[in-house]
Amino acid sequence: xxxxxxxxxxxxxxxxxxxxxxxxxxxxxxxxxxxxxxxxxxxxxxxxxxxxxxxxxxxxxxxxxxxxxxxxxxxxxxxxxxxxxxxxxxxxxxxxxxxxxxxxxxxxxxxxxxxxxxxxxxxxxxxxxxxxxxxxxxxxxxxxxxxxxxxxxxxxxxxxxxxxxxxxxxxxxxxxxxxxxxxxxxxxxxxxxxxxxxxxxxxxxxxxxxxxxxxxxxxxxxxxxxxxxxxxxxxxxxxxxxxxxxxxxxxxxxxxxxxxxxxxxxxxxxxxxxxxxxxxxxxxxxxxxxxxxxxxxxxxxxxxxxxxxxxxxxxxxxxxxxxxxxxxxxxxxxxxxxxxxxxxxxxxxxxxxxxxxxxxxxxxxxxxxxxxxxxxxxxxxxxxxxxxxxxxxxxxxxxxxxxxxxxxxxxxxxxxxxxxxxxxxxxxxxxxxxxxxxxxxxxxxxxxxxxxxxxxxxxxxxxxxxxxxxxxxxxxxxxxxxxxxxxxxxxxxxxxxxxxxxxxxxxxxxxxxxxxxxxxxxxxxxxxxxxxxxxxxxxxxxxxxxxxxxxxxxxxxxxxxxxxxxxxxxxxxxxxxxxxxxxxxxxxxxxxxxxxxxxxxxxxxxxxxxxxxxxxxxxxxxxxxxxxxxxxxxxxxxxxxxxxxxxxxxxxxxxxxxxxxxxxxxxxxxxxxxxxxxxxxxxxxxxxxxxxxxxxxxxxxxxxxxxxxxxxxxxxxxxxxxxxxxxxxxxxxxxxxxxxxxxxxxxxxxxxxxxxxxxxxxxxxxxxxxxxxxxxxxxxxxxxxxx
Length: 787
Description:
Low-confidence stretches: 17-34, 732-737
Domain PA: 268-356
Keywords: Cell wall, Hydrolase, Protease, Secreted, Serine protease, Signal
Strand content: 25-35%
GO molecular function, one term: serine-type endopeptidase activity
CATH topology of the largest domain: Rossmann fold
CATH class of the largest domain: Alpha Beta
Active site: 100 (charge relay system), 156 (charge relay system), 434 (charge relay system)
Number of helices: 14
CATH architecture of the largest domain: 3-Layer(aba) Sandwich
Number of domains: 4
Helix content: 10-25%
């Protein structure tokens, strides 16, 4: 039972586990629970507003690495050490709540204990005693948050807590509320999102991970709530890798990768054939040139290309080489290539383009100097000079309400932090947005303490905006900013957020889609000068690549970045503004929508940053991310190309072209199923049953669904089976009546002998359920029932 100003409700457990989404799951449906009498009674009770199923959730997903690395600390990225040393703030008297898998509070870096006087002061155990007993876990009571779990996937809450508040004299991490839980949903109507929003309004700052690989609209609940900080993940500049060292570059290490069949690589002397002012490809065409060099017993240095690796290896072996070292001469390829060498065990390894160019430039000036190569016995911790990359597991916005999310980004790839002491000696490297969001939580805690120390009473909205105002926009190799729907405002920078004297509100802008009212096309931006001096500012529009959501023929595609439609923003009254000390200036930014024939792709998501800069130095003082969608979402097709189609329960991959014979007399009848993939999320899906004359006679039993997420390229299809039962009489059921249809006392009818059709209807994005034009429909082939 839950009674609070946030939420009133109760959880119940039935003998069966009915779920109002069972029909529409990415797995088959077991229809034995749809008529539970308790649900029929509950939905009629005047005190019951809504019924929600209880979901079993997976643990927060992460990428595990149990090797006992010790990562260096990069203050230049997180700025946490500067916040401690320069500003004298240490997270004192700030309470952070972590909703996670528990904690090993005995860890020295986490205070070594639990309760009053310890760093971990409060806690709760939300796992029922019967669950602990099932796994032979020592019972510690409801108020003890200790994490007893073992195994490689355990310790999530301890790792997260270490990122927020862990401190060890030899290992430095970062230093209020942090919500570490996500359901891939994306709808703001989700109960968890509603509660998170209510918490935020009460001054509890929510920070949520944002993990998913399903493309646009794949954000997690509760991070989609308007006033919850949703965090994207970027890769750490530090990473473990196999490394070479060269005698000509002392005290440096260079990453390499084995070929697909190489297990180890020898130490030795590097040798090369000098061709066209570079090393050779070592193909058959280079054989004559290679014969002039003494290769035997040495490591041959070559370029990728011109021929297959097996040909290069064959030539190296014939000359007596003990190994092959190669690089990719394409300067745009920043990754170390893995050579496919089948089952040939000849040592072969690749190095990065930049590493190879350094070697080649050295060779040009020292042609007769011996170069020795030495392979490190253990993986080394290296740093990358590339622009920081968005993690592959970090999901893409926006929300289904077209709110710009994620909000900001934090380091989530390869994060070194605490683990339970019985796992990997209490320390490990983990990756996930669960690692990025606690860094933001720790940063917000520092900001709260700083403003209290300065005697300033600031709101949550101010802190969230200031955090966005001073985030570092991540760019690609060509200097183009990454899309805001991938990184939000960028990587958090706590020192700039606390010291900068410019504050901008709002801190991000959604221009919505092209059908939206003019209110969405112009944003009023307030720029406050917190300093004692007049500031002179210029405003620029810096556009990012657009994100392609689907192909021209309405087919799902990967979220490709396209340098396509250019978007202009007009600034009023001018792109220059002067703001007096402690004053606020107002500026309007209006998006200029191009003509329809200028769109390169349907429902393309444009984006960029309104850069507010110092007029004299042209230095960016703050950036305001924005995005919008080219096209009217109400017109966007919901059904993926080739879908829906009718199939049989026993073979959902075969599209039926002839009438389906549905023999209800069989004990385990082969049911007809609708196979569906959604391009975009659907507010409402419904399946009507039509008689042989094509007129609707009822709804398919449990044939209405709300807030259905879109499919992705990887996600399974939706399977909607029909068990031969429909609800009658047919009422035009509105959203307020849906629970009544799902669980209520409507009459259920078993189909008699005859011909039937299934009519699948999907309400379009922002569609009006009362307008027939706002529904997308599909009618099945005939289903012949034999009862």
